[in-house]
Each structure stands twice: as structure tokens, then as C-alpha cells.
Design brief:
InterPro entries: LD_TPept_cat_dom, Transpep_catalytic_dom
Pfam family, one: YkuD
Strand content: 15-25%
CATH superfamily: L,D-transpeptidase catalytic domain-like
Order of helices and strands: HHEEEEEEEHEEHEHHEEHHHH
Signal peptide: 1-24
Family: Belongs to the YkuD family.
Helix content: 25-40%
Strand order of the largest sheet: 3-2-1-10-5
CATH topology: L,D-transpeptidase catalytic domain-like
Active site: 146, 154
Largest sheet: 5 strands, mixed
Shape: globular
CATH architecture: Beta Barrel
Radius of gyration: 20 Å
Length: 334
């Protein structure tokens, strides 16, 4: 009877939580998924090694997650793009607990942030709030990339997808990478896409994110991320070392980018200026809860939420807010 009462209390508590966390009530310890021979062979075909560094990019509007690996050139190359099953909230950064927002920004994930015993199969913690977000007073915790097509502030993949992704990043961390970078964006940060949101209150923040996005696109190298002046600053070396206060003005930079890289980044800035001058702003007519990749939306529409839950989750974890998931506010933008 005591055990039953405790179990009922746990279930009740978990049901009341508004974040993607089990608050310690995870399943019993289990063996984490291993890198399959199929995935290893796919890496080899692209000139990549299982232990080579990894980087993850996430795009809300497109509902896609990308895994990048360093290949034999020494730069990052795309290994695989995964359609995302579910994310919650709307375009824009997460600022407070309970807002259902999935984070946007730059995060760094170490091995201690991997959870092989998550109630959502397996997961890794993004580390929200990061240094900048903490300094700005943003609140929230346990924001994950995990399995099961359910989100209340997290990025949800299918169990099969997150198992594969988990094995990839864990192998890279065991291979010597101390932490891997996650870049989470509202959409692909092209000049055209960003200009469409020029009247959005988040535009200044997104324009800063585009600086890091453009550097990676141009160089295929991981951007160095600093925080000062209440924003991200990329690939800067400062007099006196890294800024200690994310809210204080940035110290003078003492380095310069490679002239060829700087020239190509200037071209991207010019493209944005042109797009801003000629584009029209995109206005969302109504708020809907998050997004889902069109491939999963088709399954949800044709099979229903209960059947889909059985397809994407070993525990048949319910699809979060399936009615909202059927809506597609970004179809015009895509």
C-alpha cells in the first residue's frame, strides 16, 4: 500500500510539471544506445570517424535537427538532417519558466548532461539558461533534446532518432571532445528569412544569432562564443581575456578575422541589407503551440495521435497537443 501510494504521488507530480523533465523519477539504470555499424559505415563513407568532433544545429520553423561531424578535411560537414517530431512555444527565445518556449541560442553540452535513463527514452540537457540567459534573468531548467513526440519547452525526436543521435554525440565525447556545441535557431538564418521578420520584437536578437550562423556557413568551423554587452559575440579575442560580466560593455577586441572570411561575411551582411530594403514583414495571424515536421504531421493526420504515439515512442508516450500540431503556421514561409 505504501509503494502504491508513493507511485500515485509520483505520477501526480509528474503530470503537473510544465517542463521537459522527470525531476528524478527516471527509469531504472539501463545501457545507453550504442553506435550502430550502419551509422559508422555512413560516417566512413563521408570521411568521418565516430570519435571525431560533433556539432548540432536546430531549426524551429523547418522542424529539423542537423548533426555535423568533422571530416578528413578538418572542417565540419553535414552528417545527417533529422525531421523533428515536436517542439513547443513559438519563434523566439525562452525567457521564463512555464512559457513552453524551446530555447534559442548557443549551448555547449558535456558528457554529464547526457541522460541514458530519461523518461523520454534518452536525452541530453541543453544547459539552459546559459551564461547570457542567466545574466538577463531568464528562468527555466531541464530543457532537453529527447525522445517521444511530446514537448513543453524541449525538442522532441522519435525514440529511434534520439537513440541514434545520443550514440553519435556520446561517442564523440568519449573520443576526446570535452563538449559539443548546439546552435538553436528560429529558422534558417538566410537574409531572406530574417528580413521577413524585420518587424518582430526578436529581430535584434536574431540578427546577432545570424553572425554565428554565417561564420559557420562560410568557414564550416565552430564559432567561438563570448558574451558581453548583453549579447553573443563571435570569434573575438579581448584585451584582458574573456569578459566576466555578460551585461557589461565588451572590452576592445584584439584580433582580426582572416581577410577572406571577413570579406565573405560582409557579403552576407550586404545581402541582409538588400533583403531588408525590399522585403515585406511576415506577420503571424494567431499563436499556435510549436511545430512538427510535415512528414510527421502527415502521419498524425492520417493515423491519429494514439497510433502515431505507438510508432514513434517505445512507451507510446502521448503526442503533446495534437490539435495544435496539425496546424502549420509556417507553410507560407517554407
Amino acid at each position: 500500500m505504501i509503494a502504491s501510494a508513493r507511485a500515485a504521488a509520483v505520477v501526480g507530480l509528474c503530470a503537473s510539471l510544465a517542463a521537459c523533465t522527470s525531476m528524478g523519477f527516471d527509469s531504472a539504470s539501463k545501457e545507453p544506445p550504442k553506435l550502430s555499424s550502419k551509422v559508422a559505415a555512413a560516417m566512413s563513407a563521408k570521411g568521418m570517424k565516430p570519435e571525431s568532433p560533433v556539432l548540432v544545429r536546430i531549426f524551429k520553423q523547418e522542424s529539423e535537427l542537423e548533426v555535423w561531424k568533422v571530416d578528413k578535411s578538418g572542417n565540419y560537414a553535414l552528417f545527417k538532417a533529422y525531421p523533428m517530431c515536436r517542439w513547443s512555444g513559438k519563434l523566439g527565445p525562452k525567457t521564463k519558466s512555464g512559457d513552453r518556449q524551446a530555447p534559442e541560442g548557443f549551448y555547449h553540452v558535456s558528457s554529464s548532461m547526457l541522460n541514458p535513463n530519461s523518461q523520454y527514452y534518452v536525452s541530453f540537457n541543453l544547459g539552459y539558461p546559459n551564461r547570457l540567459e542567466s545574466a538577463l534573468g531568464y528562468t527555466g531548467e531541464a530543457l532537453m533534446v529527447h525522445g517521444a513526440c511530446s514537448s513543453s519547452g524541449c525538442y522532441a525526436m522519435t525514440d529511434a532518432q534520439i537513440g541514434e543521435i545520443y550514440a553519435i554525440v556520446e561517442r564523440a565525447l568519449k573520443g576526446g571532445q570535452d563538449r559539443f556545441q548546439v546552435q538553436a535557431y528560429p529558422f534558417r538564418m538566410t537574409a531572406k528569412n530574417l528580413a521577413a521578420y524585420k518587424n518582430d520584437p526578436n529581430f535584434p536578437f536574431w540578427r546577432t544569432l545570424k553572425d554565428g550562423y554565417d561564420y559557420f556557413e562560410v568557414t564550416r568551423r565552430q564559432p567561438k562564443v563570448s558574451v558581453c554587452g548583453r549579447r553573443y559575440v563571435f570569434n573575438a579575442e579581448f584585451a584582458g581575456g574573456e569578459p566576466a560580466d555578460p551585461l557589461a560593455a565588451c572590452p576592445p577586441a584584439v584580433n582580426q578575422l582572416d581577410p577572406q572570411v571577413a570579406s565573405r561575411l560582409d557579403v552576407e551582411k550586404q545581402k541582409l541589407d538588400v533583403a531588408m530594403a525590399g522585403g515585406t514583414s511576415s506577420v503571424m495571424n494567431a499563436y499556435v503551440d510549436g511545430g512538427m515536421h510535415p512528414s510527421f504531421r502527415a502521419i498524425l493526420k492520417n493515423s491519429g495521435a494514439k497510433d502515431m504515439a505507438g510508432r514513434v515512442s517505445g512507451t507510446k508516450y502521448p503526442i503533446s497537443r495534437p490539435e495544435a500540431a496539425l496546424a502549420d503556421p509556417f507553410s507560407g514561409a517554407r
